[in-house]
Amino acid sequence: MTITVTRHHFTVDDYTLMRQAGILTEDDRVELLDGEIYVMSPIGPLHVGIVNKLNRLLTGAVGKNGIISIQNPIRLSDSSEPQPDIAILSPRDDFYSSALATPDDVFLIIEIADSSLEYDRNEKLPRYARAAISEVWIIDVQKRVVEQYTQPLQDEYTQLHKVLLGNSITATTLPVVQINTLDLF
């Protein structure tokens, strides 16, 4: 006997309606990628600590030249709305209260991968590239390495620069952002 599995793909509008109806709540750790709802890994203390350190460092470096957005959704398309750990967005008077950020608003996305490395690399990164997000950092917590992805082309980044512990990384899209990896771990 053959069983047919039917998948239902959701739009960002469907996803929004599910939140408004209470089907999905603020406590649900989910995100929409290409019409599918993914359950995200729980956030542990090391992850929280790195996000908090980066928030402080980035806020000081960026100042009024951008907005540091922590674990907030970015609307990549009509079917994808991921929630990166950190995004540095273009300044906007309403601080994105009237509409979510889109790829054109993003200077840099940072994902902290303590338990989500494969998911961040294989699921989220290609979608960021497809949306032409200029730069993405994936912080590999286990190896203590920052992977800097630039120059998106179709579903991939053509440049990967790995920054090892004890070295500094500078954002290509916002050069005022320069961080020594020793400040993260």
Uncertain spans: none
Number of domains: 1
**Number of helical runs?**
3
Q: What is CATH's topology name? A: tt1808, chain A
Count of β-strands: 10
The geometry reads as globular
Radius of gyration: 17 Å
Give the helix level as a range of percent.
10-25%
Sheet with the most strands: spatial strand order = 3-4-5-6-7-8
Strand content: 25-35%
- Mean pLDDT over the full residue set: 95
Report the sheet with the most strands, covering strand number, pairing sense and barrel closure.
Answer: 6 strands, mixed
Characterize the structure shown.
The chain has 185 residues and is of the alpha+beta class. It has one domain (42-183): tt1808, chain A (Alpha-Beta Complex), CATH 3.90.1570. Helix content is 22%, strand content 29%. The protein is built from three helices and ten strands. The strands form three sheets. Strands 3-4-5-6-7-8 form a six-stranded mixed sheet, sandwiched between helices. A two-stranded antiparallel ribbon has the order 1-2. Strands 9-10 form a two-stranded antiparallel ribbon. A hairpin with a 7-residue loop joins strand 9 and strand 10 (178-180). The longest helix is centred in the N-terminal third of the chain and has 18 residues, at 45-62. It is globular and about 55 Å long.
